[in-house]
Specification:
alpha+beta; 7-stranded mixed sheet; 7 strands; 34% strand; globular
Length: 169
C-alpha cells in the first residue's frame, strides 16, 4: 500500500459530516490510469443502512482518477460457509448493483478467497459492456499488483451462466 501510495497509485478517501468520519475507501490505480480497483469500502458500523454508502459511492465514482472505471471484488455467495454468510455476501453485491455496478463474467481466487468481480464506470465514462475486455483489464491489474507472486496468490477466472461455458475469453 505504502509503495503504491508513494507512486501515486493508491488513494484513500474519507466521507465526513463536519469532523466526523462516516465512511472510507481506498483504491488502487492501474499504471495505465484507465482502471482502478476498490481495495476497501466501509461505512462506520453504527451508521449503516442510512444511505451513507450509496451517497459516498456516488461521490467516489466522480473523484477516482481512473478514466474508464473501477473494479470491485465482492466475496462470492457460492463460496459462503453458512447461510448467514451467504446472505451478507448477497446483500453486499445487491448494494453495488443498486448503485450502478455491473456483474462481470470474471471471478478471482485471491489469497484463498473466491471473489465475484463487479465493475462500475467512473467520471461519467461510457458504460463498459465488453466482458472480454474487462476480464483482460482486471487480469492485467492483478498482474501489476502481485508481480512475480501473481500466479501463487491470484487466480482470475471466467464464469459462465448456469449450464453455459465461460464467456470472457
Amino acid at each position: 500500500m505504502e509503495r503504491m501510495r508513494k507512486a501515486g497509485r493508491y488513494d484513500c478517501y474519507g466521507f465526513y459530516n463536519g469532523e466526523k468520519l462516516l465512511a472510507y475507501a481506498c483504491c488502487i490505480l492501474a499504471e495505465s490510469g484507465s482502471y482502478a480497483l476498490l481495495d476497501y469500502f466501509a461505512v462506520i458500523p453504527e451508521l449503516r443502512d442510512r444511505g451513507i454508502g450509496s451517497e459516498f459511492l456516488r461521490g467516489l465514482r466522480g473523484n477516482v482518477s481512473a478514466k474508464r472505471g473501477m473494479f470491485i471484488e465482492a466475496e462470492s455467495p457460492d463460496a459462503a460457509k453458512s447461510e448467514q454468510e451467504r446472505q451478507v455476501r448477497e446483500r453486499r453485491i445487491r448494494f453495488y448493483l443498486s448503485n450502478g455496478a455491473e456483474q462481470t463474467n470474471s471471478g478471482c481466487l485471491l489469497f484463498g478467497v473466491d471473489y465475484n468481480i463487479l465493475f462500475i464506470t467512473t467520471n461519467n465514462a461510457a458504460n463498459e459492456k465488453d466482458m472480454e475486455q474487462l476480464h483482460h483489464a482486471v487480469e492485467a491489474l492483478y498482474q501489476e499488483l502481485y508481480g512475480r507472486a501473481y500466479g501463487r496468490l491470484c487466480k482470475p477466472y471466467c464464469k459462465g451462466n448456469a449450464g453455459e461455458a465461460p464467456v470472457c475469453r
